[in-house]
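Backbone-to-sequence.
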C-alpha cells in the first residue's frame, strides 16, 4: 500500500478529502478572535475501507477545489508518515502501537497549527519517533508548506502558502471508528475550527477486487474485518458529526459534486464556537448520565420481576397464568424504561428531579396492581 501511495505528496493537486476550517489571527490563542490578518485553515477527513476508491476521489476533488474554489489543498497521508516497519510483518497486528502512532501524528499536527497561528517556526516535539517526524516534515516540505532550507535545530520556517492564504489539510486514512475521527474533531475544536467528514461507501466485494489488483494488496481478511467494524457517520447519534456526507464510490474519477462542495464551503464559513463545545459537552454528559441511570433502573426492575415470579411459583400459580403475569410485568418494565428515555412520561413527569428510589417505588406500586390479579391474597 505504501509503495502505491509514495510520491503523491509531490503533487498535492491529486489529493483531497473533508474539511475543518480555522479562522484565526496570527498570534491568537485558540478560541480568540481578531479583525486583521486572519488565516483560514481547513482540515479534511476522508474515511472508508481500503480500496474503496478514496485516492481516485481525492485526486478529482482536489483538482476541483483548486481550480474552482481557488483553495490550496495539501494532504497528510497516514501510510506515508507512519514507519514502514510498523506497516509490515508482525507489527501490523499490534493495534495498541498503531493507536500510539496515530496520537503522535495528531501531536505533530497541533505543533503545525501552533506555528501557523503564532506566525513562528515549526518546532519538533520533545517526544517523537524520529523516522515518523522526518516523514511528517518531508510531507510538509514536499507540499511547499515549510521551507526545505531550514532544519530541526533552528525550527522549520513556514512558507507564504502556509501563512497567507486559505489552506486545506486533508487527513487521508480509513478512520473506520468514530473515536478515531472524534480525536481529530477535538483538535479542530480546540483551534476554533469547523469540521466535516466525507465517508466513501463502497461494497466490500468491490474493495476486495480492486485491492487484489494492487502491487502490494492488503490481506482480504483485513478488509473483511474492517468492513464488520466500520462505523459510518451517525448524525442522529453524534451531534459532532452533523457536517458529514456519504459518497457512493464508483471507482472512476468523480464529476463535480455540488453537495460535497457545499459541505466544504459551509464548514469553512461556520467554525465551531466555544458555546457549541460547551453545549456538546453538556449533551455528552447528559447522555452518559441518562445511560447509567437507565442501566441501574433496568437492573432493579429485573430483580423485582424475578422475585415476583419466584413468589408466584411458590404460590402454585398455574402455568398459563404465570406466562400472562410475566408478560404483563415485562411490558410494565419496557413502558417505564421508554418513559425514562423519552422524558415525556405522564407517569414520571419529573424524573430528572426524582431519585431512582422514587421510580422504583412507583414501579412497585404498579407491579402490585398487576400481581393482585394472580395472587390476590398476597397483595
Amino acid at each position: 500500500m505504501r509503495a502505491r501511495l509514495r510520491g503523491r505528496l509531490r503533487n498535492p493537486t491529486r489529493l483531497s478529502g473533508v474539511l475543518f476550517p480555522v479562522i484565526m489571527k496570527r498570534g491568537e490563542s485558540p478560541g480568540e478572535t481578531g479583525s486583521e490578518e486572519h488565516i483560514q485553515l481547513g482540515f479534511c477527513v476522508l474515511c472508508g475501507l481500503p480500496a474503496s476508491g478514496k485516492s481516485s476521489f481525492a485526486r478529482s476533488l482536489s483538482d476541483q477545489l483548486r481550480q474552482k474554489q481557488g483553495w490550496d489543498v495539501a494532504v497528510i497521508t497516514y501510510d506515508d508518515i507512519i514507519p514502514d516497519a510498523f506497516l509490515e510483518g508482525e507489527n501490523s497486528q499490534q493495534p495498541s502501537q498503531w493507536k500510539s502512532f496515530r496520537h503522535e501524528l495528531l501531536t505533530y499536527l497541533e505543533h503545525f497549527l501552533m506555528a501557523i497561528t503564532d506566525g513562528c517556526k515549526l518546532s519538533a516535539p520533545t517526544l517523537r519517533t524520529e523516522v515518523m517526524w522526518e516523514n511528517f516534515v518531508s510531507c510538509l516540505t514536499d507540499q511547499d508548506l515549510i521551507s526545505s532550507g531550514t532544519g530541526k535545530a533552528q525550527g522549520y520556517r513556514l512558507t507564504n502558502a502556509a501563512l497567507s492564504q486559505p489552506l486545506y489539510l486533508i487527513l487521508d486514512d480509513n478512520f473506520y471508528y468514530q473515536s478515531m475521527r472524534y480525536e481529530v474533531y477535538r483538535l479542530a475544536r480546540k483551534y476554533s475550527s469547523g469540521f466535516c467528514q466525507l465517508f466513501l461507501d463502497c461494497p466490500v466485494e468491490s474493495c476486495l477486487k480492486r485491492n487484489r489488483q494492487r502491487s502490494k494488496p492488503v490481506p482480504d481478511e483485513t478488509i473483511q474485518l474492517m468492513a464488520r467494524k466500520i462505523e459510518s457517520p451517525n448524525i442522529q447519534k453524534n451531534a459532532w458529526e452533523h457536517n458529514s456526507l456519504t459518497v457512493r464510490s464508483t471507482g472512476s474519477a468523480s464529476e463535480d459534486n455540488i453537495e460535497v462542495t457545499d459541505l466544504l464551503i459551509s464548514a469553512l464559513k461556520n467554525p465551531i464556537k466555544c458555546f457549541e463545545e460547551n453545549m456538546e459537552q453538556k449533551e455528552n454528559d447528559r447522555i452518559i448520565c441518562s445511560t447509567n441511570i437507565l442501566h441501574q433502573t433496568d437492573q432493579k426492575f429485573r430483580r423485582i420481576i424475578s422475585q415476583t415470579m419466584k413468589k408466584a411459583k411458590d404460590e402454585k400459580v398455574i402455568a398459563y397464568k404465570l406466562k400472562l403475569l410475566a408478560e404483563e410485568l415485562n411490558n410494565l418494565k419496557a413502558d417505564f424504561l421508554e418513559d425514562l428515555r423519552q422524558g415525556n412520561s405522564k407517569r414520571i413527569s419529573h424524573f430528572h428531579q426524582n431519585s431512582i428510589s422514587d421510580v422504583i417505588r412507583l414501579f412497585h406500586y404498579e407491579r402490585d396492581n398487576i400481581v393482585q390479579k394472580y395472587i390476590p391474597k398476597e397483595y
